[in-house]
Amino acid sequence: MSDKRRIVVTSALPYANGDIHLGHLVEYIQTDFWVRFQKMRGHECVYVCADDTHGTPVMIRARAEGITPEQLIARSHEAHLKDFTDFEVAFDNYYTTNSPENKELSERIFAAAEKGGCITAKSSPQLYCAHCGMFLPDRYVKGTCPKCGSENQYGDSCDKCGATYGAEELGHPVCTTCGATPEVRDSEHLYFELEPQHEYLEKWIPAHTTSDISNKLLEWFKEPLRGWCISRDAPYFGFEIPGHPGKFFYVWVDAPIGYIASLSNWCAAHGEKLEDWWDNPDAELYHFIGKDIIRFHCLFWPGMLHSAGFKTPTKVFVHGFLTVNGEKMSKSKGTFVNARTYLDHLPASALRYYYACKLGGTTDDMDLNLQDFVTRVNSDMVGKITNLASRGAQMLNKSLGGRLGALDEEGRKLVEFAQSRADAIAAHYEARRFSQVPVEVAKIADAANEYFDRREPWKTVKVPESAEMTRTTLTTVLNVFRILAIYLRPILPSYADKAAALFGEQPYTWADLAKTLENAPIGAYTYLATRIDAKQVEAMVEKAKAKPAESGEVAHESRASKNKGASRAGATAAETAAPHADAQERVPPLKSEIAFPDFEKLDLRVGTVVSCEIVPKSSKLLKIVLDAGALGTRTIFSGIRGAYPDPAALVGKEVVFVANLAPRKMSVGVSEGMILFAGEPGVSGGVLTPLATAGAGTPCT
């Protein structure tokens, strides 16, 4: 088989009843990184997405605004696509679930499931609002929690005690749309039965998800899987179910089918056949999703596809949520920022770069620390990387006719060093360890800046006799910058394209890394990036702050929150765990104090994790091999398996370790040090972050 791959990639569909915000962008930006990288490598890669348009919330909002649902979703589609485009997220097709392709596919998949005996009908109690003339989704009713008695709770779960329940169990229920008291009515609904696929899904899940996700999902298979309610009563904005008048497909049925519909629409526009992409045995299918919608994509979705004879995803990539300054996104604090609000104050490239610095390919939540955002963009993206092009190109154009010279031996070695990191950086992109790409790039940039400062071209350029020496220096620096621009193109596409224009080249592919530029002209320098002023961030936060009447703490809006109509009727034994009430933070007392001279005895060094693996027959230990620079390699056993169920997440990370700790003989081997991690006190199985600075073997002072 050819090395050229055929790849279909999707991101979860944004709901039409809301704006795109920075939390959403965590998903679309990282998917875009991965897609752009695959295309640079020469693979056939199609990135499809769509607006998720159906459901009660869209219908009710359109009614309130005095427009049709179709008008509402058309307006939303235009706004969403503009936000994505301005953040340089390059979909090959951004479509809608309210499409003829999606209707036909939904009906086809349902018919296959019905013919295969996977569809059953059951009657279940639901809350009905006579004033609104409709059955109420969970999020359109509030009342008293049946477990703890807390008031003003939604119809699916309690924010106070974390209990889950059916909306009909609420005490003193109230319709949130009109304020009327709903009544309980029985309604017959259609269910997609999962238990017949119990064995298939139990094998499918670990083969198509990471170990931490599959371990969680497989806990649900200890008992039979209950049926999933796939119908909703009229009035409802969506597709009516053939053969079942007055019943509509629940939005979570046709939303994922929208992936195939968007691809089908793309195929029709490009003279391709859908079966050559989605159902092609040699094609690869990848979903990027948030961890709040795992059960829909890793349980219901493969079950539906399998029952209908469609190919299931190759892998489902799951990411965490976004926090800002270490806290949930907040309207009152101005940290719940819409995409357009950000773009009104700051460049998209800065956020793309910062997100790349923070994304590690795991389900860990990602923090946007606004102070760190300013510092990192200014110091690394502008100060280290862009500065090479700025100083080099402007000096070459101003004083040396804008023409590159030849590389000398020292310069060629530096360029070859930059080129030598290609395979490692490609591996980071492929594994979605995006945070390691800026680390690698910064190391190369540091070496180039050190070379530039040591050669002092700003001095040699003033001496006619050393003009060619200056040209050689600038040729080296600009060649290194060109390589860095290629490495960064998936993250900073327009930035890299400007760099290509500087050197008179076409947009870069990965193969362009092998070339060097000598004795060639360059173009006029165009500013690639500018420093961020903290005042720009402050202005953005101020603009994002809710008015007092609107304030209230808002977490990253989950894709599932649009219509929590899954309720108990649509749940399985695999119901996701309800969010726990915030536990009171308890800080353990100090065990003992040590004198500073004792602390000085510690020799703290930086090492790079070369390999990390689970220790057999141990529930806690990971075996970590470090590259400790001049100290050689060190093997360290660390009891952090609960925080890193996927050990590969640590590979490539730089960590601080105690280098002069006496070796400790353990039953599994000899541990040659101790790695320093930070995490929340008293939290078991939480995220532990390695403490690190740059440079393997470097002492920490």
Strand-helix topology:
Layout: E1 6-11, H1 22-40, E2 44-51, H2 56-65, H3 69-86, E3 93-96, H4 100-115, E4 119-129, E5 134-135, E6 141-144, E7 153-154, E8 171-175, E9 183-192, H5 198-208, H6 211-218, E10 228-229, E11 231-233, E12 247-249, H7 251-269, E13 283-290, H8 294-308, E14 315-319, E15 322-324, H9 339-343, H10 348-358, E16 366-368, H11 370-399, H12 409-420, H13 422-430, H14 436-455, H15 457-460, H16 467-488, H17 493-502, H18 534-544, H19 596-600, E17 604-614, E18 622-627, E19 633-638, E20 654-658, E21 664-666, E22 669-671, E23 674-675, E24 677-678, E25 689-690
Parallel strand pairs: 1-2, 1-13, 2-3, 13-14, 15-16
Antiparallel strand pairs: 4-5, 4-9, 6-7, 6-8, 9-10, 11-12, 17-18, 17-20, 18-19, 20-23, 21-22, 24-25
Defining traits:
701 residues, alpha+beta, five-stranded parallel sheet, five-stranded antiparallel sheet, 19 helices, 25 strands, 17% strand
